[in-house]
Every structure is written in structure tokens, then in C-alpha cells.
Amino acid sequence: MRKLTVLLFLITIILISLTIGCDRDEEHIETLIIGPYRTECPSFSGSDCYLEFNEEAGKWHFFYEGIQGFDYEEGFIWTLKVRLEDRGTEIQDVGRYAYHLIEVLSKEEASVDERPPRNPLED
Fold first, then answer.
1. Which residues lie below 8 Å from residue 25, measured CB to CB, with a gap of 6+?
2. Per-domain residue ranges for the chain?
């Protein structure tokens, strides 16, 4: 687990260094941590959302967007490298960005019964 934490830290540092000074129109890359199950979104649509781990807050949040190219499988905590495509602000009822999978960085087995899932950055 310690190796995963170090790996995530190194990936974050690399991604930050690559994006510093980037122009707004250039490609934007992020690392997402996606939880082991989907859950009903707290919205009127009744659709399911991924859970995303927010490192700054240290807890899971609803992730309302889909991730193009991602074959989700329940029972794993996924660390993904994604490219964000700016949709602009003109489109209503969708998020500002479309997410495209670049690479699966890790796929770690996790319980779907644990609500909320464990902190993926703790040993």
C-alpha cells in the first residue's frame, strides 16, 4: 500500500509539472481515483454515479460524468489517467469537461460492501 501512495504522489508531481504554464486551449490531463461501486446520484435523473476520491478533502465524492473508453468493473479501486476535453459553457445540463481514458494506472481489489469505501491512500 505504501508503494501505491508513493506512486500516486510521483504521478501527481509529474502531472502538475507537465501542466504548469499550459495554455487554456492545450490538453489537460488528470489522475482520478474511482471507487469500487457505483451509487445513485443525488439528482432528479435517478442515474448512477461513480465515486471519486478527492485527495484534498480526504473523502469520496459523486462523479457525475462518464469516462469514455473506461470499462468499469465493480469491486476495484481504479486509478486512471484521463484527458479532459473542454465542452465550453454553452451546453446545458452537462459538465464542462468530457473525460477520456488515457491509461489505467492501477486496479486494486476492494469490497463493494464497505460504504463508503476505504481511503485508497492509507496503508
1. none
2. 2-109
Interatomic CA distance for residues 18 and 93, integer angstroms: 31
pLDDT per residue as tens, the chain (123 positions): 666 665 555 455 555 554 554 444 567 999 999 999 999 988 766 788 999 999 999 999 999 899 999 999 999 999 999 999 987 766 666 678 899 999 999 999 999 999 889 998 885
Residue count (the chain) = 123
* Residue 30 identity: E
The grid cell for 22 is 499550459
Strand stretches in 1-123, DSSP E: 28-34, 39-40, 48-54, 59-63, 67-68, 76-86, 97-109
Asked whether the CA dihedral 67, 87, 22, 51 is positive or negative, the reply is: negative
